[in-house]
Amino acid sequence: MEVSVLNINGQETGRKVTLNESIFGIEPNDHVIYLDVKQYLANQRQGTAKSKERSEHRGSTRKLGRQKGGGGARRGDINSPVLVGGGRVFGPKPRDYGFKLNKKVKALARKSALSYKAQENAIVVVEDFNMEAPKTKDFVNIAKNLKVEGLKTLLLLPEVNKNVYLSARNLQKAEVMIASTLNTYKVLNADVLVVTEKSLKTIDDILTK
Predict the structure, then answer these.
(1) Count of CA atoms in the C-beta half-sphere (13 A) of 173
(2) What gap in Å lies between CA 131 and CA 154, rounded to an integer?
(3) Are 173 and 154 in contact, with CB atoms under 8 Å apart?
């Protein structure tokens, strides 16, 4: 699949790049996409929910009533879960929600997500560019020129570029990432991918190992 390379003014440069068929042209696997997105969202969870059990409550340990014959549920001290204000039974404890996925599964998930974007013609390739200063207005103009204004846009850069990052930071529908940190969730969450030429090479190097 060939895609024209644009400049930041939205004009064609006369060059074309061929998207790697083994990355952008595979049959997407929905199940591995589900697993990779599930892992990403699980890793975002803090896992700090905690409730007190009966041994952690402050209160007397005196037995409140007879074991039998009271006509109600058995209960021991005032911290019993049976009583209002008592400890909670099987409450949440701090935990890690993350789980393991094989590298090949994660790679296939990213390839599948990128293939979906290629099928939707939602990939824009631009020549490598830089910004002299962090200016949101300049970034908005670039989005207008590339006809992606108003769309959830994911811009992939080959390396950290502070000026570009700061220019897009205040825009709700724009996000800037380094190509080497690309993940399935971010690809699917975006309406359109704007990829620089060097970023394409980085993606090829990572996903064709």
Answers:
(1) 11
(2) 17
(3) no
Rounded Cα–Cα distance for residues 46 and 43 (Å): 8
Distance, CA of 158 to chain centre: 19
pLDDT per residue as tens digits for the range 2-27:
888 889 888 888 888 899 999 999 99
Q: Give me 91's structure tokens.
A: 């409450």
The alpha carbon of residue 90 and the mean position of all alpha carbons in its chain are separated, in whole angstroms, by: 31
* Domains of the chain, first to last: 2-45+98-208 (3.40.1370.10), 47-96 (no CATH)
Helix (H, G, I), strand (E, B) or coil at 187: helix
User: Residue-wise over 179-196: b if at least 16 C-beta within 10 A, else e?
Assistant: beebbbbbbbebebbbbb
Per residue in 79-100, pLDDT (tens digit) is 999 899 899 999 999 999 999 9
Provide the residue count of the chain: 209
For residue 31, give both structure tokens. Answer: 């199940």
Instruction: Report in angstroms the alpha-carbon separations of 84 from 58, 62, 73, 122, 138.
Output: 14, 16, 13, 56, 60
